[in-house]
Specification:
It is built from 6 helices and 2 strands, in the order H-H-E-E-H-H-H-H. Helix 4 crosses helix 5. The protein is mostly helical.
Length: about 180
């Protein structure tokens, strides 16, 4: 997965410390619950920012983006919030979307062929039925042919970095700061 973009938020601990000092038994649980709600909202905002910036023509990438809370701890020593937004899509594909792909190395042709088939890039289609014509072997041959052309182009020229997660992290940081105030 792409290196996570961390949000660095400053939370005023004076009121939290005073609350914990006054109610040492129940305060940590109450604070953890409220911080979990805030963290969940913050992650949802970040997830929405990532989805908004995700390319629409990348198969299941947009649908594979998710958020997860790893931990929320509050106590006299401070507050520790941990969560992330990521993608469950094919890892090399996510890296290529986020950081681009430099020219040189040949990309996986089979993965591109699958994308060609899903998007209907290659082949002959019936105008009347809007279905693809030809035998299964012929359709596979057409898909592979188009995939090889795309793969060669990527190997020669590379792909541009989209920086989906990075840009979303920057945009979300401004919105998320208000959640914890």
């Amino acid at each position: 997965m792409p290196a996570p973009t961390f949000l660095d938020l400053k939370i005023d601990m004076k009121s939290i410390d005073a609350f914990i000092t006054r109610f040492p038994v129940t305060a940590p649980r109450i604070i953890e619950r409220e911080l979990r709600i805030g963290l969940n909202d913050a992650l949802e905002m970040t997830l929405n920012e990532v989805v908004d910036r995700a390319p629409v023509d990348t198969g299941i990438f947009r649908k594979s983006i998710y958020s997860e809370i790893v931990g929320v701890r509050a106590g006299p020593g401070g507050v520790d919030l941990e969560g992330f937004v990521s993608s469950s899509d094919y890892e090399p594909k996510v890296w290529a979307i986020e950081y681009g792909r430099p020219p040189g190395k040949m990309p996986p042709v089979e993965a591109i062929a699958l994308s060609v088939r899903r998007k209907g890039i290659a082949g002959v289609y019936s105008i009347k039925t809007k279905k693809r014509k030809g035998s299964k072997a012929q359709r596979q041959k057409e898909d592979l042919s188009a995939a090889w052309a795309i793969a060669i182009n990527i190997a020669r020229h590379g792909t541009k970095a989209q920086k989906v997660f990075e840009k979303a992290g920057i945009a979300a940081e401004r919105k998320v700061a208000g959640v914890f105030e």
